[in-house]
Amino acid sequence: MSKPSPIEFARQVRQEVSKVTWPSRKETGITTLMVFIMVVVASLFFLVVDIGLSKAVEFLLGLGA
Question: What is the dihedral of CA 33, 39, 41, 44, to 10 degrees?
């Protein structure tokens, strides 16, 4: 398969981009908000797990003292 010329390549790219279904502004906003909410939920989950594991290690190390 031979490489197309730069002009042919640009034409093919334009054709492919015209086939893309782009999200609306509303869909983009909702998706962005969902990502931020999931980041907060995940960070709170890992904070709780980290604190719990920290307390468990402190307890286990305190048994030997």
Answer: -140
Amino acid in the structure at residue 2: S
Residue 16 CA to residue 24 CA, distance in Å, equals 19
Interval 9-49: pLDDT, tens: 999 999 999 999 999 999 999 999 999 999 999 999 999 99
User: What tokens does 5 get?
Assistant: 């010329």
Cα-Cα-Cα-Cα dihedral sign, residues 29, 15, 8, 3: positive
In this predicted structure, the answer to whether residue 63 has a pLDDT above a threshold of 90 is: no
